[in-house]
Amino acid sequence: MALFVREFECPSCGGTIQRENSASRSISCPYCGQTSHVNADSLDAVGAQHLLIDYGSMLSVGMTATVKGHRFRVLGKMRIEYGDGFWDEWYIELLDANKYGWIQEDDGGFVLFVGGDEISALNYNDIKVGTNVALSEKYSNVFITSKSRAKVEGGEGELPFAIIPGDIADFVEGISEGKVISVEILGDENNLFVGAPFNIDELQV
Amino acid sequence: MATTYVNSEKIAATKQLNCTSCGNALSLLNPRAKYIACQYCGSVLDANSEDHQILMSMSAPEQNAPFSFIKVGLIADFFDKKYQVIARTRWKQDYYEFWQEEGEAGYSRELWIYDEWLLISEQRTYFYLVEDSSGYYISNEVIPDEPSLPGEGNHWSFMKNQQPQVISEYGAANVVYFEGESNYQVKIDDYINFASYKHKKDIYTAEWRLEGDTEEIKEIEFFKETLISKKEVIKAFDNNEELTILKEKGQFWQWLTYGSFGMFVLFFIMMIGSCGDGSNTVYEEQFSLNAIDDENGVFSKSFELEKGLHNLKIKGTINTTNTEAFMLAYFMNEKKDVINYLEGNFSIYSGFDDEGYWVETQEENDKLVKVKEPGTYYAQILADRDSTTQGVVTLTITDGVTLTRYYVIGWILFLILGLIFRGRMKQYI
Description:
The structure holds 2 protein chains of 2 kinds.
Chain A: E1 6-9, E2 16-19, E3 26-28, E4 35-38, E5 43-46, E6 64-67, E7 70-82, E8 85-94, E9 99-106, E10 109-114, E11 117-118, E12 132-133, E13 142-159, E14 168-176, E15 179-186, E16 189-198
Antiparallel strand pairs in A: 1-2, 3-4, 3-13, 4-5, 6-7, 7-8, 7-13, 8-9, 9-10, 10-16, 11-16, 12-13, 13-14, 14-15, 15-16
Chain B: E1 15-18, E2 25-28, E3 35-37, E4 43-46, E5 54-57, E6 75-78, E7 81-101, E8 104-121, E9 126-132, E10 135-141, E11 155-156, E12 165-182, E13 191-199, E14 202-210, E15 217-228, H1 230-236, H2 241-273, E16 281-288, E17 298-299, E18 303-305, E19 308-318, E20 323-333, E21 338-353, E22 356-362, E23 364-371, E24 375-385, E25 391-399, H3 405-428
Antiparallel strand pairs in B: 1-2, 3-4, 3-12, 4-5, 6-7, 7-8, 7-12, 8-9, 9-10, 10-15, 11-12, 12-13, 13-14, 14-15, 16-25, 17-24, 18-24, 19-23, 19-25, 20-21, 20-24, 21-22
């Protein structure tokens, strides 16, 4: 993977930022907290400089670990704030499968999402919690357990989509066949992820 | 459950602060906590701001004291890991409980209060320990295989390989008190809807919150609650210095409790032992009314009595219709000192009314007498009656016969004391 590592200069503070995943579209400066969108050979600063508070976690950007048989490296983190608190989404690269995924960390609970499918646009307002909804062709009977309109507080490291701190995103969570289903509606992008909860004891750092 | 306790050190706090309202020292263990409710005064503070602004004040903590020894700050060993109690939410349930009796079934409305203790591990993972006056449950969120909310019928399940079970409880619960830290602001009267069913020894529950004042559901969570015995809970908290102190205090009340219940049993046995059927006649003598002198009455023969309780009974059989006789029996020791007495009016009346001939008699009276010293005793019988009144008076003395009121009083007293002491004991351990 080191072959694809590329260095950029932070448009705000001039610090050197490494991009490890060529598909990453957002990158945050570890020095000043500036979020930037990745262009062909430069970065465009978006939003204000904002370093995320370190609330403590077993995970950190750059670390490698194993969970549920997947060896992974943490590429980035996105923090989402909603009325009742916040949660973190860790963007990971699965080192043995050439895939990407997410680890959702919320109130000491962890869910591993591997892969993700872009799905056709959902009408957030039409989705009712407590009902079964067809979210995609494959996941045509998902029991919706929550939906929330939340704010992207900011990021750390690199992320696969173009986030702007302060942007509002919609999240829909559900269960299908014993699996956790999560849909993120960020701008025009509707991504569906399928996950499984895991215990922190299963994480081998 | 609690097997390999590591040490009695508290989990390192990520922040120390003093309550803005009462000044008591507070610790934050969860680095993600945004709010802390002071367990000493009930003020809810902003945990992250520099001045820890008071956001709201709840009712005084003593009004919502925990059910048992558990409190914020105690460490515990669960699942072979060290945990520390960081918060407690007290919920009040207003719900419907299933009942079934003699072929009939239904739901009755109930009120219930329980505490939800939040414990955090060194790895910053959590679990909930649910406590109410009847016991403890460990609550874990589950991902159901077949998620659903209860429908119109009263049977439901959300896990594969479970036949639909009777909905055992359903209703709402609201927050009445909160202490400790939280990463979202707990508000008094925050409420959830819930429904539960039992499967084997576990309770499966769905909880859902509504969006504001609307009927729209905002979030649904599924839980499995597993019963854990008080013994296991005490063992899990065994390494706390606080628990040792509480145990010492509790032991004082425990000994009083055991002592009281011991005395209760003793009095009960003595009470049963003191019961007899009264059939063991120690002495009996009959006197004709004619033989009783108007002034001096008549003395019985002497009789020997053992120490203890005896029943003194006089039976006046009046043979002359529509007359009555007043009789007095003195119970005396060998020196003819009166130590007790018994009196009674004995009569026989008869006549005719609408239903025919009737006879009404009053023949017997008795009394317990306590013999303190074994020895020789006498009775003197006096009678006040018309000279024409004929009849017989029978003096009978039996042993045992009845309960002593002292044993009954002692039995009840020690039962009450035992229950009071047991209540105090349970406050500590």
